[in-house]
Amino acid sequence: MVAATPNTIHLAAEEDSSKRRQILDGARKVFMDLGFDGASMNEIARSAGVSKGTLYVYFADKNRLFEAIVQEEALAHGQVVFNFDPGRDVETTLREFGNAYIGLVCRPGGGSAIRTVMAIAERMPDVGRRYYENVLEKTINRLADYLQAHVRSNDLAIENCQLAASQFHQMCQASLFLPFVFQAAPAPSAERIAQVVESATRMFMAAYRAKPA
């Protein structure tokens, strides 16, 4: 019997990661095309180019597979860096955040995971809750912390920073996110996103800018 070398272990790990990626990419396409209910393990195996036996080695069922895709979506959001340095100007920070965030959630193809989560959240509340907590709530909390820092420095007059952060988050989505996620409109252009975010920023500052003493 020949002992496994570090190199063979490394290659096996790379192959395992590559196969998992192959399966997830195939499953993502099936979920996008057919939705959660329409997707089957047979169809996912065919799309991924693997045997059904190989598919079950990595994922016990399509619930686990979809949860892995949702987790990837959360990681993708987490890798986008929003600059919430408390020393930065509020209006500049809000504009940059709004443009980056809406560009992320309304990117071409980016609505499929959101649509599917929305469709199955009632049946699989844990998936819906985790998606909200790991994708949406974390971003709102970071913005709320940034706003709180500027309340302390008397730049803003906000009683509830969590509410204010949610309000700005929603204002940036106005006329963009819902038409996109329900496929009533294509992904918005960068110019259109900038227009909506600029309007949201002006409205936010009009409501919450601290008045001179």
TrEMBL record:
DNA-binding region coordinates: 40-59
Entries under Pfam families matching the protein: TetR_C_7 (PF14246), TetR_N (PF00440)
Keywords assigned: DNA-binding, Transcription, Transcription regulation
A single GO molecular function term of this UniProt record: DNA-binding transcription factor activity
InterPro entries on file: DNA-bd_HTH_TetR-type_CS, Homeodomain-like_sf, HTH-type_TetR-like_transc_reg, HTH_TetR, Tet_transcr_reg_TetR-rel_C_sf, TetR_C_Proteobacteria
Domain HTH tetR-type: start-end pairs: 17-77
Transmembrane segment boundaries: none
Name used for this protein in its record: Transcriptional regulator, TetR family
Origin organism lineage: Bacteria, Pseudomonadati, Pseudomonadota, Alphaproteobacteria, Hyphomicrobiales
